[in-house]
Design brief:
55% helix, elongated, mainly alpha, 134 residues, 5 helices
């Protein structure tokens, strides 16, 4: 609420008035929250961690050879190294699983408001607030 909502609050209040790319604005909002954000977080998590996990699996040690550590770290070479490397390699799948779960939850979300005042659509400026001064 503190960091994200000030940037999307203008859209969330009038989501029923928007039709981005021809889709219902509220459906775009539901899909971005339940599917897009977990998938985006999974990609952000996977980019730095998957190469480290693969190097650890190939080298059969963790941390892998050439991996920079900031304090003296004991190198693990047994099953613990495999578990850590697999965790780094497949950790992003947790976010992908949440995104898949979220894609099925979107259908149960409300598409039309029960008591929405559509005069908001006519009176609200449907642009982003920083562009109101133009």
């Amino acid at each position: 609420m503190k960091w994200v909502f000030p940037y999307i609050g203008w859209y969330a209040e009038t989501a029923y008035c928007h039709t981005p790319f021809g889709y219902s604005g509220i459906m775009v909002l539901w899909y971005s929250i339940f599917f897009g954000m977990p998938l985006f977080c999974g990609v952000l998590f996977a980019i730095p961690s998957v190469p480290v996990g693969i190097k650890g699996l190939r080298g059969k040690q963790f941390p892998p050879k050439g991996f920079k550590v900031y304090k003296p770290t004991q190198i693990v070479t047994d099953w613990r190294a495999k578990v850590k490397s697999l965790g780094y390699t497949f950790g992003a799948l947790l976010f992908v699983a949440v995104a898949i779960w979220g894609s099925f939850q979107v259908d149960s979300m409300p598409n039309e408001p029960e008591a929405f005042d559509y005069s908001v659509c006519e009176s609200a400026m449907l642009g982003h607030p920083p562009f109101e001064s133009f």
